[in-house]
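During the reporting period the student researcher (J.K.) took over the structure-prediction task from the postdoctoral fellow and processed the backlog of single-chain submissions. One of the processed entries is reproduced below for the supervisory committee.
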Amino acid sequence: LEAASKISLRFSDAPSVDPQCEALFKLFDGALGTVELGRLLKGPDTGRLVTLRRRASARSPDLASATDLARSVAHPRVAKVLGSFAGRAAWYVASEYIAGVTLFELSEAAAKQTVPLDAGVAARIVLDTLTAAAEAQQLLAATANLHDVRCVFSDSIWLASYGEVFVSELLIAPFIAGSLDPAAALPSALAD
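J.K. obtained the following structure tokens:
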């Protein structure tokens, strides 16, 4: 009984019998895995469109803790992590949906068309990405005493259709990337 009282379960650890989200269609296969457009099926955000990052395996305690912490981070340049959800066939990390493309998708499209990105556009993307990453780092240091957390991955940087740059999967992307070859996190145009 004493050992049982030391175990603490979080709501996010509870298994789900019913799916909490549904994947509507695949957006792309990126360096960090499959990204899908989805919809939440339960809770106060029922019906909300979200970006779903498919998890290859069941949730780990470390990922659950990172997800819980990421849910508490709010910043204008950070796509809000909404939590881990069970789908019909997989677990997903759901984040705020941003209409646009990722840096991964942009670099793949430029490489396929062999058309270089305009230097001014590329400079703006790099500047905005580094600014967003620096602001995310400052926020994590101030709120969670976390320092030097990698938050720039080619498919966790979103370029919104209206021109803003967002960091997504903050604190989550390193767990996903940890199971990949380091070169896989680079856009193919940069990996060669």
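The committee noted the following: The chain is about 30% helix and 25% strand.
J.K. will present the remaining backlog at the next meeting.
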